[in-house]
Amino acid sequence: MTDKCNLVLLYGGKSAEHEISLISAQYIFEKINKERFTIICVGIAKDGTWYFQDNPRDKDPLAIKTTPNNEVSLVSINNKPLLNFMDGSKQLPVDIVFPALHGTYGEDGTIQGLLRMVNVPFVGPDVLSTAVCMDKDIMKRLFIQSNIPTCNYKMIKRADLAALDLDDIIQTLGLPCFVKPANLGSSVGISKAKSKQTLQLAIDYAFLYDQKIIIEEAIDGREIECAVLGNEAPEASVPGEIITHHEFYSYEAKYLDEKGAELHAPANLPQTTVTEIRALAIKAFQALDCEGMARIDFFVTEKQKIYINELNTIPGFTHISMYPKMWEATGVDGDTLVNRLLDLAFEKFDRQQSLKTTFG
Ligand SMILES: Nc1ncnc2c1ncn2[C@@H]1O[C@H](COP(=O)(O)OP(=O)(O)O)[C@@H](O)[C@H]1O
Ligand SMILES: [Mg+2]
Question: How far is the CA of 334 from the centre of ligand 1 (A)?
Fold first, then answer.
């Protein structure tokens, strides 16, 4: 490749993980090969407005400057993706997008749908996988269908509430149990219920965040994670471990308490468990049709029984995040990782472009 590619780095966004996204984007910015790519930084404010960031640095955290004449949008003209300056001053061609966005509107298929519509290559799994992995109920149905061990759970929609039998739920799933909104992240809206009374409160609380919730049996185990990278032949990293000093890996433990959790990579596990986790991580990645990357989270009991918890399709990319940390522990440094993700995005795009879209 002789010409430099224009890479749009998208960050911020409308989710609870807006601030984490800024730190992820900063890490990604640092690692992108500047000889190959011209980085165009675009910050999405909390209200959803997109702003071109004219003076990004690779040392300070990437902040979002909301200057009115810097408003931009991504458009497609003659099937070519362009970053359009809303004041009419210019349009920049876009060769690839790195959506460093987490959670709602970031890893739930919505931004991926926009990127597909404007016909631009982008990093990470596609519309279907990101949407499915965001919905804990649908994700779990696919784990079950693929014989990937996951804990017992019950899905409840708002319309089921009137006929809900809490004794029956407690009978089936036991106490304590976890109550979660189906479509969220960062542990927002999640409670550990220890009694019938707190279960009712936990259900009401989760319904503040979603139309659909799930209740899961509690697994008494270690929290083990594994990073997957690749398209058609994905590879799994060595597993890592999250040791939380809170009752569970809550929002407080993740973001508010600096000492809320310790992240270790590699995790200290028997070799057979490591092998099993790596194989299950790849199996889950493929079962959910992921490409590019995903971080797969597990619970491992004392008896080395493994349960999958969830797949994160745009995992955290801060300097202390598990996804880059686990690759580092596997021998893949941050520069190699980020640039490999960009190559995978081009590869996936080329494969999609070569498909016929009409009959004949
Ligand atoms: N079934 C469970 N058994 C034990 N702990 C759980 C269970 N489900 C969730 N947790 C705890 O809650 C945390 C957040 O749950 P998770 O499903 O990963 O939600 P999020 O998508 O918001 O990260 C987990 O990291 C873990 O500490
Ligand atoms: Mg989680």
Answer: 27
Delimit the CATH 3.30.1490.20 region(s) of the chain. Answer: 152-217
Average pLDDT, the chain: 95
H or E element, residue 303: none
Mutation test residue for ligand 1: of 150, 180, 187, the one with most atoms within 8 Å of CB: 187
- The pTM of the full predicted model, rounded to 2 decimals, is 0.96
Ligand 1 site residues (CB inside 6 A) read 151, 178, 180, 185-187, 190, 216, 218-219, 223, 248-249, 297, 309-310
Q: Which CATH code for domain 5-122?
A: 3.40.50.20
What tens digit of pLDDT does each residue of 207-242 get? 999 999 999 999 999 999 999 999 999 999 999 999
CATH of domain 152-217: 3.30.1490.20
Which ligand is closest to the CA of 308, given by its number? Answer: 1
More confidently predicted of 3 and 180: 180
Distance from C-alpha of 286 to C-alpha of 270, rounded to nearest angstrom: 25
CA distance 60 to 19: 14
